[in-house]
Amino acid sequence: MPHQHTNSLFFVLFAFFILIMTSLYNFKTIIDLSFENSILRTNILLLNLTCNKDNNNKCLNEDPIIFVTPTSYRPEQKADLTRLGQTLGNICNLFWIIVEDAQLPSKFIDDLFNRLKIKGVHLVKQTPADKKLKFSDPRWKFPRGVEQRNSALFWIRNNLNSWKRGIVYFGDDDNTYDWRLFDEMRKINQKIGVWPVGIVGGMLVETPLLDRTLTNYTVNGFNSLWKPERPFPMDMAGFAINISLIHEHSTSLFSYKSPRGFMESRFLQSLDIKREELEPLAMHCTKVFVWHTRTQKSALMADEFQKFNMAINISSSLSTVEEDAIF
Amino acid sequence: MPHQHTNSLFFVLFAFFILIMTSLYNFKTIIDLSFENSILRTNILLLNLTCNKDNNNKCLNEDPIIFVTPTSYRPEQKADLTRLGQTLGNICNLFWIIVEDAQLPSKFIDDLFNRLKIKGVHLVKQTPADKKLKFSDPRWKFPRGVEQRNSALFWIRNNLNSWKRGIVYFGDDDNTYDWRLFDEMRKINQKIGVWPVGIVGGMLVETPLLDRTLTNYTVNGFNSLWKPERPFPMDMAGFAINISLIHEHSTSLFSYKSPRGFMESRFLQSLDIKREELEPLAMHCTKVFVWHTRTQKSALMADEFQKFNMAINISSSLSTVEEDAIF
């Protein structure tokens, strides 16, 4: 019966092959990329862009939006990302780049991508210890998200260099985004679109100020009260960038060396942008579609706070439900 | 030509009739209802319950969820309600009762209902001046939302008394709701469902504690550290109520007279609920689908804060874009 044996062997090998292929398909690739002498760990989820909304194919031909979110370990992180994910899950042709300030990628973020069927990529990049805010530090002590946004830029330049169209936006995990903001972004024609941001810089709304010509509106200033001498006194939430600009200026990055409050301005300057090139959106900057809301720091009792701090290394110190609240 | 005259008259009358009917249809009825010797102003939007999600008819036969949200004038109110509305707009068979602590209903809330196609009702009920928190007051000085939640209860009892099935839930405007919370609510069988709430009462998670019998799980306590002596040491976000219970106990209300932290407990006691009747949900209280997040108070500059305070009476003191940020 040698023939039958060959058949069985073939069957076993075939089953084994199928098993291997299936595991490979489900495997979320971890790629090491060297970047500024450190390791950027990349956890790639789904790279094929399809419409997130099953019943809405209308914007498949429109520019994809690349939404970059730096995020870090804190008691409210899971809540904030859940809420943001549920907002982004409604936007079609959106690609979400989450960059965690962490040693290892959090499983709940992968689950969020899968559950909400959001396309994107989950990266991890740690802030160097000497640049990291402590819980008790004031927010302004160091600029936050520098490393993470730069990792995203690096990733975009390496992996989306074939994308001729697309919009890059830096969106914090606790801001509030009206869905209509995404329609505005897709109107960007050339380089950079700008719009008002609610509750930021001590103001009800920070906004570009416009000049009206016979045929057009152009930005001729900003209403910022805080450091109005900045070249672009704007919050990160107030502009989005054509991806071609990111590719053309292939070395532009955010920098710790920018003076306090100048991070956005220096970055925009490095993209060779002039004020008159900014494209005012949101009905000539009269509508507010994004607010710089912040989630209040949780007032945890001392024991709970210690448990939270220890949990990042030894998650077994938590009960099942505590683990589910933060991881 | 008297016949022709009659025809023209008939035509004019008919056009007039159509005009009146159209206006009536679009008119958001303002009804005055006397309640505790004060006026409850009711702005009814759409009362027919249909599925919010165009492509999702699967839960039309399931219990409707009545989501009650007290809300008040503050710089972040519009942002919070926009974000919450976008979350609720994804839940089918949901009826949103917003109760504003205001003199007049805010137009942006009506617009939100219309834009997101959410079914519900928009009520206004002012907190008496002597019970109203000032901006600088600590949160615990008075219980918040008492009048507004009671107005909602009153409205439900008067207008939804024919509803034999349905779930009533009290959801703040700045909490974080995982969509899966709503699936849990619909599992309530008899009276009241309970589940864990993240980041509340100084803890990572407050949760009912369960006893496991051969066939069942029952609530035998709570892990609350703050005032654990309360009969039901739970946050408002941690339970939902079968509408039949609301109708059966037709005088149950929230009260300013409850000692601090006892508002939920006293209300549940007034519904004649025993601990063993609570139905533990969210996978035997091991999953967290709601977090008691709070939006940080905006650090507005003095001039901006004054502008904000004045705006509630004279909105013309704001520029168009400032108005859009908060109204």
Automatic annotation (TrEMBL), chains A, B:
Highest taxon in the source lineage: Eukaryota
Gene Ontology terms, MF aspect: galactosylgalactosylxylosylprotein 3-beta-glucuronosyltransferase activity; metal ion binding
Active-site residues, record numbering mapped to chain: 264 (proton donor/acceptor)
UniProt topology in membrane: Single-pass type II membrane protein
Coiled-coil stretches noted in the UniProt entry, renumbered to this chain: none
GO biological process: carbohydrate metabolic process; chondroitin sulfate proteoglycan biosynthetic process
Pfam families the UniProt entry points to: Glyco_transf_43 (PF03360)
Catalyzed reactions: 3-O-(beta-D-galactosyl-(1->3)-beta-D-galactosyl-(1->4)-beta-D-xylosyl)-L-seryl-[protein] + UDP-alpha-D-glucuronate = 3-O-(beta-D-GlcA-(1->3)-beta-D-Gal-(1->3)-beta-D-Gal-(1->4)-beta-D-Xyl)-L-seryl-[protein] + UDP + H(+)
InterPro entries listed in its UniProt record: Glyco_trans_43, Nucleotide-diphossugar_trans
Annotated positions for site Interaction with galactose moiety of substrate glycoprotein: 206
Record: residues binding Mn(2+): 174
Enzyme Commission number(s) of this protein: 2.4.1.135
Family, per entry: Belongs to the glycosyltransferase 43 family.
Protein name: Galactosylgalactosylxylosylprotein 3-beta-glucuronosyltransferase
Species this chain originates from: Meloidogyne incognita
